[in-house]
Design goal:
This protein is mainly alpha-helical and 192 residues long. The chain has 7 helices and no strands. The chain folds into 2 domains: 50 residues; 138 residues, no CATH class.
């Protein structure tokens, strides 16, 4: 259904002269990505409103968007798979924030931090091995990922040292954990 609507819209854009016929496949792909991401985002927004977790959702999404955009990661083969995976992980995050007592936020954040650092070390070394054959641009993204990751670690360590770990900090940590796991899965695919 989404594909039919996008094709119709793309053909209308071509007919009106807004899109060059040779650019139609690119236009169609971009439109499809925007619609699919919009559907996932709207689902998450509705859940965040229902559970009054708007700030935590914004922090979680911000963390994922930043680190996925520079760190690559696993991509599902179909929109249905992407939707199911993305929304399920998001719902697990919201359920965790709802069910975990706030007095445990610091301990869980610390545990996630240790796990993320281990995953980061593994994925960084595997990425460097893989990227030795890749372009300089990928190395720049890898270095940017390392720099931002260390900034994130220092932020979390600072919040832990100040005993100011909130639901937002835990949401950011869970989002960062998701990005590291996604990157790890992607690297495992490279080895196949």
């Amino acid at each position: 259904m989404i594909e039919q609507w996008i094709n119709k819209l793309a053909l209308q854009a071509e007919a009106s002269g807004d899109v060059d016929p040779k650019d139609l496949p690119i236009f169609r792909y971009g439109l499809q990505m925007m619609v699919e991401i919009g559907i996932i985002f709207m689902t998450m927004l509705l859940v965040s409103l229902a559970f009054d977790k708007i700030i935590e959702t914004a922090v979680w999404l911000f963390t994922i968007i930043i680190f996925r955009s520079i760190g690559e990661g696993y991509h599902a083969k179909t929109f249905k798979s992407c939707y199911f995976i993305s929304v399920s992980i998001y719902l697990l995050t919201i359920a965790s924030l709802e069910l975990i007592p706030s007095v445990w936020f610091a301990q869980i954040t610390l545990g996630c931090l240790v796990l993320v650092i281990i995953l980061f070390a593994i994925t960084s070394s595997l990425t460097l091995k893989h990227q030795s054959k890749e372009t300089i641009d990928n190395r720049i993204f890898h270095k940017t990922r390392i720099l931002l990751s260390f900034c994130f670690y220092f932020f979390v360590i600072y919040r832990l040292s100040q005993d100011t770990v909130s639901a937002s900090v835990l949401a950011a940590m869970l989002g960062f954990l998701v990005t590291q796991l996604s990157h790890f899965i992607k690297i495992k695919e490279w080895k196949k």
